[in-house]
């Protein structure tokens, strides 16, 4: 059975939803579970016909001139870029898993664009949300699971620039570090359960008097 490939994906857009607004740029960084970066893909896109920027995002982009310039060069038509992207995902050496933070935003855009311009999505209907994974691991309330509250060792020294490829790589490394901790937690739980089974006593039970 093929191993999973974690496709960390970042979307830069000019509004909260696709259709009325456009995806400006997107990038994916494909990682193995042991944090090997095996491939990347990125594209800057032409705007959707009839779409317009949302005033909030339009104002924000004016504060990010370098990232704006980076996402407005070498523009491709969405049909061309998304067809190439789907082919790229389907050629990865494992089962692709879409990873993002928040997945609700990035996957909404990517799924809409793939279905609109290609007619299929290699990730099926699923996306793995880093924020939700953090909620399960940290014990913090869901809305408090923001990056400044994450354990420091989850982060490698990657820049967060709002350039899609930079952010996809940074986010993928973060996810792999979290996954390493999760596997360690799972292994510890298994070992504890096996130790309890070996003694003939359930660890949750009180010892007999």
Automatic annotation (TrEMBL):
<dbReference type="InterPro" id="IPR036397">
    <property type="entry name" value="RNaseH_sf"/>
</dbReference>
<dbReference type="GO" id="GO:0003676">
    <property type="term" value="F:nucleic acid binding"/>
</dbReference>
<keyword id="KW-0540">Nuclease</keyword>
<dbReference type="InterPro" id="IPR012337">
    <property type="entry name" value="RNaseH-like_sf"/>
</dbReference>
<protein>
    <submittedName>
        <fullName>Exonuclease</fullName>
    </submittedName>
</protein>
<keyword id="KW-0378">Hydrolase</keyword>
<dbReference type="GO" id="GO:0004527">
    <property type="term" value="F:exonuclease activity"/>
</dbReference>
<keyword id="KW-0269">Exonuclease</keyword>
